[in-house]
Amino acid sequence: MKEYLKERRTLVDLVIEEYLNEIKYPKVIAEGMKYSVLNGGKRLRPILLLMTLDLLGVQEKNGLPMSVAIEMIHSYSLVHDDLPALDNDDYRRGKFSTHKKFGEAEAILIGDALLTHAFNLITREDLEPSKIVEMVKLTSNYAGVNGMIGGQMVDIESEEKEIDLPTLQYIHTHKTGKLLMLPIECACIIAGAEAEKREVLKKYAELIGLAFQIKDDILDIEGTFEEIGKPVGSDKELLKSTYPSIFGMEKTKEILSEKIEEAKQIMFDVFGEEAKWHMELADYIGNRRK
User: Fold this and answer.
1) Rounded to the nearest 5°, which phi and psi values hold at 25?
2) Torsion over CA of 131, 119, 67 and 15, rounded to 10 degrees?
3) What is the share, in percent, of the chain residues with pLDDT greater than 70?
4) Are 132 and 52 in contact (CB under 8 A)?
5) Measuring CA to CA, how many Å separate 290 from each of 42, 212, 216?
6) Residue range 32-46: average pLDDT?
7) Residues in contact with 38: Cβ distance below 8 Å, sequence separation at least 6, in sequence order
8) Secondary-structure breakdown of the chain: helix, strand, coil percentages, each rounded to the nearest 5
9) Peptide linkage before 26 cis (omega within 30 of 0)
């Protein structure tokens, strides 16, 4: 799995760099966009799109613009998350966060540039106009107030408060989960997947999205700077409710394992061994150290 991820990440990085090389001026925006997107990262979201296209019998090249667009949106969210007004993190992926490298005002605009340029890339997909419109609509929904932004807002409002499990689940499924569902659903749009397969893949995406955030909660307590690329303990410092704070660490790890196994099982039930990479990715998410 690690070798597979490495190969796909190399491909995605080459395409990201190709698109970002088109942007020359203003220089600080061009440099900042490259710094923020090519500053490490696992590329799980674009890889999920390419992996799902392969599962559905469509060549990966058909989803490269969309996959890069999603990675740019993910990167913009990290740039803004790190700002002093939000999480106030000086490091991202073991390096200075964008606002520490370029300045706070510059980082805001760099993030804005990544978000808006992502929609430019979606229009470059060589697809029927109706499919492009559907992906633009889905992207704006999942990255916006009904998705990631909504989750981030409730996360901020929940700091220094005890919140119930439904609120915590809302934060996790929206702040993190929606942007992991997006590449899988976009792959289904590109491939013209039948309704049954699309629903199974959507459920799989929901499960691994939740598992991803639960694992983040665990790593914020048990991880190290070298493993997660930034100081640990930020959730506790901000008095955020997390799965470990509600359930305790042992129960949280049990829940994580249950979500991973459920994700693998539903994929196997419909796709069998053809879903090998999706099942292995679920395990990778549950066992990752960064």
Assistant:
1) -150, 140
2) 120
3) 93
4) no
5) 9, 11, 8
6) 91
7) 13, 16, 17, 20
8) 75, 0, 25
9) yes
Nearest Cα to 19, choosing from 118, 141, 96, 154?
118
CB of 138 within 8 A of CB of 185?
yes
State the residue for tokens 């100081």.
231
Cα 142 to Cα 39, 54, 150, 281, distances in angstroms = 24, 23, 9, 22
In whole angstroms, what separates CA 276 from the centre of its chain?
21
- Residue that has been written with the tokens 């490490």 in this structure: 40
Helices (H), 63-147: 64-81, 98-102, 104-122, 129-143
Handedness of CA 147, 87, 164, 157 (dihedral sign): negative
Decide if pLDDT at 236 tops 80. no
Residue 29 and residue 247: Cα distance in Å, rounded?
A: 43
The span from the CA of 228 to the CA of 90, in Å, is 13
Q: Which two tokens stand for residue 236?
A: 């506790």
Q: pLDDT grade, residue 242 (50/70/90)?
A: confident
